[in-house]
Amino acid sequence: MSNKPSLSIIKIGGNIIDNPVELSQFLADFSKIEGNKILVHGGGKSATKMAQSIGLTPQMIDGRRITDQPMLDVVVMIYAGEINKNIVAQLQANNTNAMGFSGADGNLIQSTKRNHPTIDYGFVGDVQKVNTSLLETLINIGIVPVFCAITHDKKGQLLNTNADTIASELAIAASEVFEVTLNYCFEKSGVLTDVEDENSVIEQINSALYAKLKAEGAIHSGMIPKLDNCFNSLSKGVQKIKIGHHRMLQNKAALHTTITL
């Protein structure tokens, strides 16, 4: 039995952020979670909508966004600005003392620009380091950190960074100090065998089943980097990972997917 204090890290994305009613309900549920907690949010659909409204054409490869300078300007504005501050304001309304962060704030998450042999992802960051001591201090004084999907390289460059990866890397770093549970919340009930059937939830996925489902094409697109992050986190000290609708945060019986090694 660990003597470490517990910490819940919850990542939201998908249609939750784009639906004001759903987001409000999620934030009310999140506020009821007892103990230490961190919220990580994406916002890709909002960024895509904004980009298209100003004449940009978003590009994605395997669920990851290509980020040139105009697209970086959009994602910083949407993720670190509009979405992050709206979430913080709503959490404050729920008596949760939230504070919004990008990775640049307090040098909390430092990344390097992705160097891929065949694909130029642009201003996309791969997380290198988490400022665990500052994170621990914030949590210990009662702050609930809310992270957007923007990091920096400590050389003055902001970088678009996959929000699932940020949640995963925060969980890995925090597991040195805390007993960490990582929850990925989105609009579905979990990882589904049939995206049209909400009851087709795969209740448990281990690495062998994941490899099989991926080879069969049953798991694809944005779910691949999400699950890759899950298995990486479990191999590096994170205690428990769940994927599903945010109702699982308050309802233990709600259908969801548990990821295990």
From TrEMBL:
Organism for this UniProt entry: Flavobacterium franklandianum
Organism lineage string: Bacteria, Pseudomonadati, Bacteroidota, Flavobacteriia, Flavobacteriales
Domain spans labelled Aspartate/glutamate/uridylate kinase: 9-244
Major localisation: cytoplasm
Family in the record: Belongs to the acetylglutamate kinase family. ArgB subfamily.
Annotated site (Transition state stabilizer): K11, K226
Subcellular localization, as worded in the UniProt entry: Cytoplasm
Pathway: Amino-acid biosynthesis; L-arginine biosynthesis; N(2)-acetyl-L-ornithine from L-glutamate: step 2/4
Binding site for substrate: G43, G44, R65, N160
Keywords attached to this entry: Amino-acid biosynthesis, Arginine biosynthesis, ATP-binding, Cytoplasm, Kinase, Nucleotide-binding, Transferase
Protein purpose: Catalyzes the ATP-dependent phosphorylation of N-acetyl-L-glutamate.
GO cellular component, one term: cytoplasm
Catalytic activity: N-acetyl-L-glutamate + ATP = N-acetyl-L-glutamyl 5-phosphate + ADP
GO biological process: L-arginine biosynthetic process via ornithine
Entry keyword Flavoprotein: no
Protein name, per record: Acetylglutamate kinase
Annotated InterPro entries: AceGlu_kinase-like_sf, AcgluKinase_fam, ArgB, Asp/Glu/Uridylate_kinase
GO MF annotation list: acetylglutamate kinase activity; ATP binding
EC number(s) per entry: 2.7.2.8
Coiled coil: none
